[in-house]
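Hey, I was hoping to borrow your eyes for a little while. No rush at all, and the record is pasted right below.
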Amino acid sequence: MQFITGKHIARRTFLRGMGATVALPLLDSMLPAANPWAARKLAEGKTRLLAIEVVHGAAGSVEWGAKQFLWEPEKTGRDFELAAQSALTPLEEWRRYMTIVSNTDVRMAEAFTGPEIGGDHFRSSATFLTQAHPKQTQSSDLYVGTSLDQMFAERFGQETPLPSMQLCIEDLDQAGGCTYNYSCAYTDSISWASPSEPLPMIRDPRTAFDLLFGAGGTPEERQARRRENASILDWIVGEVAYLRRELGATDRRRMDQYLDNVREIERRIQMVEAQNSSGEQRELPEAPAGVPDSFTEHMQMMFDLQVLALQSDMTRVFSFKTGRDASNRIYPESGTDSPFHPTSHHGNNEETILDFNTINRFYVGLLPYLLEKLHNSQDGDSSLLDQTMIIYGSPMGDPNIHNHRRCPLLLLGGANGQLAGNMHLKAPDGTPMANVFLNVMHKLGFDEMSSFGDSTGEFNVPSSVLTAVEEASQSR
């Protein structure tokens, strides 16, 4: 194994063996000491992008819920306070990494013609990251727009082994047509490589793990390893031992911790597969063996896989679809046993709105797990959280009437100084969410972009380099 070059290790170093390919996180040994400029360039933070969609809007987008401040705070700027019942209270400890952008609309998800009325559930997801209006069709002549995550992947993701990855939680393997004459492709993906090319999303953590770590060169090799309950790390033990002798103490600890995390997520996948293959009754009988019945466990496993991928620079772009429109799933961990879709159609009943808000808060409450993992992952001189932009939002507002006004939207992370955090920004009435996304694209390096989706201008989100006066002016 000859990957030591000169006095440093190549950044794109892989440990290989028997079909396994494990990329390494950034180590000090990868920074060439003899060339300080090159070292700074290599350690220079590359912005990562995570786009997370939730469906059915939020209780705080309902007229009554907005008056109770169930999503957006009452005050704007930095002095905002979250109401006791706000769905965002789980993020209170992370507010310095949180920018709330309220009162934006996703009108491209609305019905444009009579036959489109009622089909909001089957347009919304395709609209979220494209901010474009889907063509009503059940045939192959799909058309909506190119999603912002794929624009970013096309320009900045080509130097990583995987330009992007698309993950999901619910069953999206529904070919053909959905209702209201819309193709299920519009409902099943939030990532569009072109206006007519939706990208498939991975639901099974095992599939994502094998894609990231090349776990077995053939299906037969993968099956053999699983029967033996072996680890991919067993296949690279010799290369790990060789490399450890070449590393300093800090790098050894960092590599060992990273490999421990790889083994831990692999072990958890194996346990889920064993449980789901035992013959015991499942809550999700249609799901692959690698998919946990627990929503929380599934979300955390997917978050862990994203963090490992960002640490090893296997990809810098993720889109993550956390639900499917019209799902009747129940979340026992949430504190309510009300099914999702019926509860979202609250009928303006205040008790039901609060029940839906409980589900919203449960979803948001899973984000600190991701934020902490990113915060504890160093990449050069800063954490992955400082280098990452996370978009978290929904293309729907009030689900009871399928409207797309006052849609929930958060920006999380530091994005290498492009997000100031600790701020609530309220857009003027009628502002398209696309105006925010146009500013996001500028922050991500698309300086030449003059419009995005149905944008009517740019809604500026302050960066950490703005002065206090500039930040105050943006919050008014």
